[in-house]
Structures are given as structure tokens and as C-alpha cells.
């Protein structure tokens, strides 16, 4: 689920104490400290350098949007990785076989034959090895 700009604006306003529309290193350090994330001045400078897209020394709304969207993508990849491991965990081979797909679907209450599972895998099997690697699984899950 994507955050809309009003959500990003609310985050910006929370950190932007002087109301200038940007988060200074001082504001970031102070607010993170209040939230229990105590950072030293050098750590804040490095963080600002990493997150500040236009190099002005402040975090703007656009910088926050980029950071939050990137975090969302990382979370989505982590979730896909966990789902991949659920299908993979019975054999731990690093890919999904028709048998492991059938077993996981069965655990989820969906009964499929080995032939149906083979056909499902075949549809997303880009390299033709009869198995789903993580990349192929991610494509399947995004359909």
C-alpha cells in the first residue's frame, strides 16, 4: 500500500520544528532522540548525506517520499523472501519444486495434483528448468 502525499507531509511536519518545509540535521537528531533512536552528530550527518537527494543539506518532502517508497520495496522483498521460504522449506533446495508447491498449497487448504503444480510452475519458469527460483517466484506473486 502506497502512502499518499498527505501522509508524507504529516511525517515532514512532525520532524520540521521550524516550519520551513525541510528537515535539518538538528531537527532529525532531536526527533529521533525523542523516539529512542539516539544518534551522534556524525551519524546524523552520514544519514542526511545518504537521504538528501538534492544535496542541499536538508530533507525535503521529495527526499522523504523516495526514502519511504524504497523502504516499502525492501519490505515487499523481505515478505516475498519469507513466502518463498515457506514453499521451499520442506526440501531447502533454494527453489520451488512441483512437490513442494503441492505440499504448501495443501497446507493452505488448496488441493492440487502434481500435474497442476507442474503446469503452474511451467507458466512462470523463465529458464525452463522445471523449478521456480526466487526471481521467478517474485514474478508469479506480482501477477
Give the key terms:
single chain, 143 residues, mainly alpha, Recoverin, domain 1, 2 domains, 62% helix
Q: Radius of gyration from the CA trace?
A: 22 Å
Give the helix/strand class. mainly alpha
Mean pLDDT: 81
**Top-tier CATH class of the largest domain:** Mainly Alpha
Give the total of domains. Answer: 2
| Assembly form of the protein | single chain
Query: Please, how many helices?
Result: 7
Q: What distance separates the N and C termini?
A: 16 Å
> Which spans have pLDDT < 50 for at least 5 consecutive residues?
none
Dominant shape: elongated
Can you give the helix content as a percent range?
55-70%
Strand content: under 5%
And the CATH topology of the largest domain?
Recoverin, domain 1
One letter per element, helices H and strands E, the order comes to HHHHHHH
Structure description:
The chain is built from seven helices and no strands. By secondary structure, the protein is mainly α. Helix 2 (25-34) packs across helix 3 and helix 4 (61-88) crosses helix 7. The longest helix is centred in the middle third of the chain and has 28 residues, at 61-88. It is elongated and about 65 Å long. The relative contact order is 0.09. The model has no long low-confidence stretch (mean pLDDT 81).
